[in-house]
Amino acid sequence: MKIHIKTYGCQMNERDSERIRSLLAIRGHIASDTEEGADVLIVNTCSVRAKAEEKAIGKLGLLTAKRRHPHVIVGAVGCMVQRMKDSIFDRVKGLDFALGTGGLSKICDILDRIEAGERRVIDIERHRETADTASAHEKSGLSAFVTVLEGCNRRCSYCIVPEVRGVEVSRPAQEILHEVRTLVAGGVREITLLGQSVLGYGKTTPVWESGHVSPRGFLEPFPRLLEALCEVEGLDRIRFTTSHPSGCTNELAAAISGLAQVCEHVHLPLQSGSDRILKLMNRGYTISEYRDAVGRLRERNSSMSVTTDLIVGFPSESDDEFEMTRRAVKEIGFDNAFVFKYSPRPGTRAEELADDVPSEEKLRRNHALLRDLDVRGTEVNAGLVGTEVEVLVEGPSLRDKRRMSGRTRTNKIVVFAEEEGIGIGSLVRVLVERAMPQTLYGSAVSGSLTRGGAGKTGGGLEL
Ligand code: 5AD
Ligand code: SF4
Q: What is the mean pLDDT of the chain?
């Protein structure tokens, strides 16, 4: 069958969609980039804000309504299924199946049941993964996501994630290493380690080791995992997301500065600049502790890039408290940030607080922060003009096919003139000549190619 998956939400969801496609490919199904002509249409859903849920429900409604043929199967997977359970079938009439976050490895069984004539099939159990189902990847490109930690044990008062993704479970280090070695053998040069609170890797039991709970001693703390991954030959870059200030220890700072492959970038959600709001959010740090965490990382890594998430309009957030967030953002100096308007989530602790910041005011605060961030982004990037940055080449620029595009170690997009010998997968130094808030422009430094690529269209690499 031809399968098309539409993905909403975070990188964890992107990785889950990839895993579903690869599990289906093992059974001979074919992934399709387009809805047209697909026999199975899957929507991978997100519950983090009401808007994300509305989008997925709207999409599912469209897909079920305009089904071109009765044999076409429509299913929902992921966080929203886990939250809404059976009631998702009331919201989306004609939905054939619903699979929660803990049952992705069952996707083939579910399709078998539908083919056998069952309808409204639902599975929201947390099934044990085997090493094979957890490590399944599609044909590799240049970069890959690798999940190291599932679920979350923090109890941020606004957040639905612990409910939809369950308790924290670290994957065994051996399994992760094996997955990364296999990816690198297939052409991957850059990995992003994923976890809701990735720096907490190795601290939590139970651990699934191919279906068994493994002894606690088996696990490694996050900096040790980084060290082990750096020994994988052929791997150029290691990224990780998302981080929490409590994990920004001296050991982590030392690992980032001491391990060549670990990129100088941390995504460290701040959420608010007011201690009172941070406490109501149950974030587990004060603004001064957050500053110290960033300080520890920057002390050892002068080019450290820090990005963040911010929530505006949390219940009872006053104008003064919002201004504290603005000041904190300016003072800490983020390279970039995502700004979200608070959205009450059913069953969370914050839902009990009155959602009392009017939506126009949330919008105003959102815009004000975005403007500040744009100014700062322009400054940070302008500061890079005249410097050389290392770029991992991803391919022709989307806007101008005659130019190449790639990313710096700090995850900034760089566009530069095409040159002989530089292709996808090349590692090259680029002199930055011009800067926009989101993109740097420049030219390759001659003789700086540390590793050749696979030509402009990928050549030998399976991209
Ligand atoms: N409302 C608004 N934003 C939220 N986030 C998480 N939950 C909510 C919510 N209820 C944001 C946080 C988090 C990011 C992934 O989404 O900023 O870091
Ligand atoms: Fe990702 Fe959270 Fe959305 Fe689930 S609810 S997809 S974990 S952002």
A: 91
The arithmetic mean of pLDDT across residues 278-287, rounded, is 98
- Alpha-carbon distance of 408 to 412, in angstroms, equals 5
Which two three-digit tokens encode residue 170?
């670290």
Domain boundaries, the chain: 2-123, 140-263, 388-444
Specify the pTM.
Answer: 0.93
pLDDT tops 50 at residue 461: no
Would you say domain 2-123 falls under CATH 3.40.50.12160? yes
Distance of CA 259 to the CA centre of its chain: 22
Mean pLDDT of all residues in 98-109: 94
DSSP state of 160: -
Query: Based on the number of CB atoms within 10 Å of its own CB, is 289 exposed (0-12), middle (13-18) or buried (19 or more)?
Result: middle
Q: Which CATH number applies to 140-263: 3.40.190.10, 3.30.750.210, 1.50.10.10, 3.30.450.40?
A: 3.30.750.210
DSSP symbol at 451: B
Ligand 2 neighbourhood includes 9 CB (under 6 angstroms): yes
Phi-psi region of 23 (alpha: psi -120 to 50; beta: other; left: phi over 0): alpha
Q: Do domains 140-263 and 388-444 have the same CATH topology?
A: no
388-444: CATH architecture? Beta Barrel (2.40)
Relative to the alpha carbon of 270, which ligand is closest? 1
What is the C-alpha separation between 463 and 459, in angstroms, rounded? 9
Residues with CB under 6 A from ligand 1: 48-49, 158-159, 269, 271, 309, 311, 340, 342-343, 345
By the 8 A CB rule, do 267 and 304 touch? no
How many angstroms is it from 348 CA to the middle of ligand 2?
A: 15
Question: Is 60 exceeded by the pLDDT of residue 447?
Answer: yes
pLDDT by residue (tens digit) across 41-98?
A: 999 999 999 999 999 999 999 999 888 788 899 999 999 999 999 999 999 999 999 9
pLDDT at 127: 86
Assess whether the C-beta atom of 296 lies below 6 angstroms from ligand 2.
no
**Assigned token pair, 422:** 């530089």
Q: How confident is the model at residue 218 (pLDDT cuts 50, 70, 90)?
A: very low
Instruction: Sheet with 2-7: list strands edge to edge.
Output: 30-31, 2-7, 40-45, 73-78, 97-99, 121-123
